[in-house]
């Protein structure tokens, strides 16, 4: 037990430390139940009960949320077999308000019976539960062995024939595929669904043991001819099991597929524990086997004990029991568990026979247990609407749930949403389940999860849907570039080509006498003028003198409400904005009919012209213009503000920036010139939506079919891939343009989203930001930030300054 830390402060009950997998922790719980059964010593009982109950999952069927993404049928089966042992051996029952041992085994049986797959190879269970895991196309014998073992033992314990029917069905399938060799009764490892007749020929002790005990249970349950049939099967399996006994007298248990060649992996090092456990139990249900089994267990126990002289404490047991009296240098949970099980097995005749519900069983059952998971194919369905789950914390009660919802609302209103999510990630890990507005959500900041959702699986598995679709439909309609997917989205995207628009009115609107002004407000007007110029062909002229309609539309682009909730103010703003766009659509159409359009304005590229030329309906045009204007006015109106305010807080940065600007020697540089200014662009990368202050608070996607993200399950949420180091280093929260001299971040850095849906306005925003910063520091000798305490952020549609972007400048 020196390897187990689940009951210690900071540990997770029921889990072994890395690199041990979840299933072996379930096997360890079974070994501790055996220890109590053989010795009567209750020393580990509370620890065992704690671990067994902590890992049951929200539906009490050993599918906990932190394991289901990588969990296989065999993994789940080992926990169920431990629960079955607890019921059969009258291990102390859990409290009445907790799931009971028999019901837990029944729950696992129910979920696994629903996964029986007749479409590939005529039946059987797949190794893996979920389609994305390596091994989903493999039907391995241990998954069938666990299911068979559980079904047979449930039949014996409950007397229910339906369990026996499933055991018979599994046995018949194993023989039909020759995974059980009909001549030798060797049990082979498994078959691929692409070649159902070609078994992988490896033999493992735990397959033989699980089938042997299941067959003994069926013998014990049956009568008449059926019992005679199962007696013959027990005999045949016992004959086949002799392949695992080697040494001078062919009586020492050996993992023959890997042990002689020193290739046993961490899992395989524990397999002999289970053959020892189940051979001993077989003698209780098929008593005539005792005289044949007991000498094998005795010789193996002596050999195993003779190797337990290694390690720092001098009692670590080795793997190779045939090397009598020697410790082979290996040690671990598997070796210790195997040695303990084979030694305990030798007192099997001195302990009571396993009970049934007719012979003194005290565990309560539930034939319908596990119903919430029957047929489930979504690994995150465990994040149900009544719980907030994480990979590290236990399920929270309703009071805690309501507190969580209130915290989210409070964080939004108090403009600290970024800090709120940061604290959640610190508490729950980089991927956790949560509840928002009644919806189950998986929240992640894991770089590989983000990359997967936005690139490799963005089209098939993560199209626009769910909350993002429903909320955008209220404002943008079904065919906008923000609310559509597939061909509709591609067509809408292809039409949008933002251009680099210069607006000389902006600098003229900036006070140069040192007074404090709100730069964010001016920048929103600039972005509105630029975007309406290239979208509609008519600028809103917000920086000069906007019309009443233009001024109103500027306000409507930042509605002062939670835009994810229907609201009369949002509805009114939507109507006004669409009417504003409709006015220009009809104006352009009328001018075009008269042949006067090209004479009124430079229209070298106007988005509206392209849409009208395509002959699409007016509502479609309104939707595309509307969403495009929302995109740039909403997302990029405040970007350059950070490029001015944040550098002002570091004089070294400003000095280097001014030096680079002075070297260019022009007031109105070209875009190519600005792109070539290395330090200016490093400054831009380091601020605002570029990294420190993200414009978009959240990015939502809804999976439309079974899929998987690379991380979030397993112990600590790390499987199947370990978390990488922080690419930004220990000063990740600091503004440091110099980091970009050596840093080439990938999916740790997505200020403009990523993948095929990368922001269309990226170059527009970058060029605008670079030009504004250039002009500011070229034309003003003093530029300083005026907000005390640094940027104070709020979240509406986007992240922005809660008090405005307060700066000052002098010529």
Walkthrough of the structure:
Its EC number is 3.2.1.101. The protein is mainly alpha-helical and 811 residues long. Helix content is 46%, strand content 6%. The chain folds into three domains: 22-352, Glycosyltransferase; 398-444, no CATH class; 447-810, Orthogonal Bundle (Cytochrome p450), CATH 1.10.630.10. It has 28 helices and twelve strands. A hairpin with a 5-residue loop joins strand 4 (245-246) and strand 5. The protein starts with 21 loop residues before the first helix and ends with a strand. Mean pLDDT is 77; it is low at 378-402, 559-566, 631-638 and 719-725.
Give a brief outline of the structure:
It is built from 28 helices and 12 strands.
Give me the count of strands. Answer: 12
Query: Termini distance?
Result: 74 Å
Structural class: mainly alpha
CATH topology of the largest domain: Cytochrome p450
Name the shape in a single word. elongated
**Residue fraction in strands:** 5-15%
Question: Which regions contain 5 or more consecutive residues with pLDDT less than 50?
Answer: 378-402, 559-566, 631-638, 719-725
- Radius of gyration over all CA atoms, rounded: 34 Å
Quickly count the domains: 3
For the largest beta-sheet, the strand count, sense and barrel status come to:
3 strands, antiparallel
InterPro entries: 6-hairpin_glycosidase_sf, Cyt_P450, Cyt_P450_CS, Cyt_P450_sf, Glyco_hydro_76, Mannan-1_6-alpha_mannosidase
GO molecular function, one term: mannan endo-1,6-alpha-mannosidase activity
Pfam families: Glyco_hydro_76 (PF03663), p450 (PF00067)
Keywords: Glycoprotein, Glycosidase, Hydrolase, Iron, Membrane, Metal-binding, Signal
């Amino acid at each position: 037990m020196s390897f187990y830390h689940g009951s210690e402060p900071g540990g997770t009950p029921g889990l072994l430390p890395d690199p041990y997998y979840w299933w072996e922790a379930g096997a360890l719980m079974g070994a501790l139940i055996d220890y109590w059964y053989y010795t009567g010593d209750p020393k580990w009982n509370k620890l065992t009960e704690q671990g067994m109950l902590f890992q049951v999952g929200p539906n009490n069927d050993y599918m906990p949320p932190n394991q289901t993404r990588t969990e296989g049928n065999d993994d789940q089966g080992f926990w169920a077999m431990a629960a079955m042992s607890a019921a059969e051996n009258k291990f102390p029952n859990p409290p009445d308000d907790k799931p009971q041992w028999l019901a837990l085994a029944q729950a696992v049986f129910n979920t696994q019976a629903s996964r029986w797959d007749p479409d590939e190879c005529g039946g059987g269970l797949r190794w893996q539960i979920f389609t994305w895991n390596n091994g989903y196309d493999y039907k391995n014998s241990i998954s069938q062995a666990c299911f068979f073992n559980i079904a047979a033992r449930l039949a014996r314990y409950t007397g229910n024939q339906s369990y026996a029917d499933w055991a018979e069905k599994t046995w018949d399938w194993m023989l039909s595929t020759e995974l059980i060799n009909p001549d030798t009764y060797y049990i082979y490892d498994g078959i691929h669904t692409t070649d159902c007749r070609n078994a992988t020929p490896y033999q493992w002790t735990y397959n033989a043991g699980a089938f042997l005990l299941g067959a003994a249970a069926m013998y014990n349950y049956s009568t008449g001819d059926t019992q005679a049939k199962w007696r013959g099967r027990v005999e045949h399996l016992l004959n086949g099991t002799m392949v695992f006994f080697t040494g001078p007298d062919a009586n020492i248990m050996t993992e023959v597929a890997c042990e002689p060649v020193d290739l046993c992996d961490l899992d395989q090092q524990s397999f002999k524990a289970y053959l020892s456990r189940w051979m001993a139990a077989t003698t209780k249900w098929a008593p005539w086997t005792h005289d044949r089994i007991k000498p094998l267990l005795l010789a193996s126990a002596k050999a195993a004990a003779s190797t337990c002289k290694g390690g720092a404490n001098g009692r670590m047991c080795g793997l190779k029991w045939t090397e009598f009296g020697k410790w082979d240098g290996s040690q671990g949970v598997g070796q210790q568990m195997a040695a303990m099980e084979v030694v305990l097995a030798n007192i099997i005749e001195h302990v009571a026979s396993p009970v049934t519900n007719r012979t003194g069983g005290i565990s309560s059952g539930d034939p319908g247990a596990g119903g919430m998971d029957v047929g489930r194919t979504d690994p995150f369905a465990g994040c149900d609407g009544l719980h907030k789950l994480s990979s590290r914390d236990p399920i929270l009660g309703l009071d805690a749930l309501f507190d969580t919802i209130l915290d989210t609302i409070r964080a939004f209103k108090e403009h600290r949403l970024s800090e709120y999510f940061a604290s959640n990630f610190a508490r729950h890990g980089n991927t956790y389940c949560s509840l928002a507005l009644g919806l189950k959500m998986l929240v992640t900041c894991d770089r590989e999860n983000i990359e997967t959702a936005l690139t490799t699986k963005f089209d098939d598995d993560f199209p626009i849907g769910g909350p993002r679709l429903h909320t955008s439909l209220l404002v943008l309609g079904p065919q906008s570039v923000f609310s559509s997917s597939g061909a509709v989205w591609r067509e809408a995207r292809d039409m949008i080509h933002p251009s680099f628009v210069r607006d000389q009115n902006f600098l003229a609107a900036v006070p140069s006498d040192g007074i404090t002004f709100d730069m964010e407000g001016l920048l929103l007007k600039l972005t509105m003028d630029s975007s309406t110029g290239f979208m509609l062909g008519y600028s809103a002229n917000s920086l000069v003198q906007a019309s009443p309609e233009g001024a109103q539309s500027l306000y409507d682009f930042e509605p002062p409400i939670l835009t994810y909730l229907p609201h009369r103010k949002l509805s009114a703003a939507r109507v006004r904005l669409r009417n504003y766009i409709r006015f220009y659509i009809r104006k352009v159409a009328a001018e075009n009919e008269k042949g006067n359009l090209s004479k009124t304005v430079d229209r070298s590229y106007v988005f509206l012209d392209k849409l009208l030329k395509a002959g699409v309906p007016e509502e479609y045009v309104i939707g595309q213009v509307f969403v495009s204007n929302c995109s740039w006015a909403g997302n990029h109106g405040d970007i350059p503000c950070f490029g001015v305010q944040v550098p002002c807080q570091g004089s070294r940065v400003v000095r280097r920036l001014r030096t680079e600007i002075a070297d260019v020697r022009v007031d109105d540089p070209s875009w190519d010139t600005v792109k070539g200014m290395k330090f200016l662009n490093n400054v831009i990368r380091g601020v605002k939506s570029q990294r420190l202050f993200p414009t978009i608070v959240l990015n939502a996607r809804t999976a439309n079919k079974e899929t998987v993200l690379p991380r979030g399950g397993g112990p600590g949420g790390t499987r199947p891939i370990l978390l990488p180091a922080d690419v930004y280093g220990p000063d990740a929260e600091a503004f440091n343009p110099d980091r970009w001299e050596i840093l080439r971040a990938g999916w740790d850095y997505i200020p403009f989203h990523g993948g095929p849906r990368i922001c269309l306005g990226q170059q527009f925003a970058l060029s605008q930001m670079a030009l504004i910063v250039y002009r500011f520091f070229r034309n003003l000798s003093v530029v300083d930030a005026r907000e005390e305490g640094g940027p104070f952020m709020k979240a509406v549609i986007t992240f922005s300054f809660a008090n405005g972007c307060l700066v000052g400048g002098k010529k």
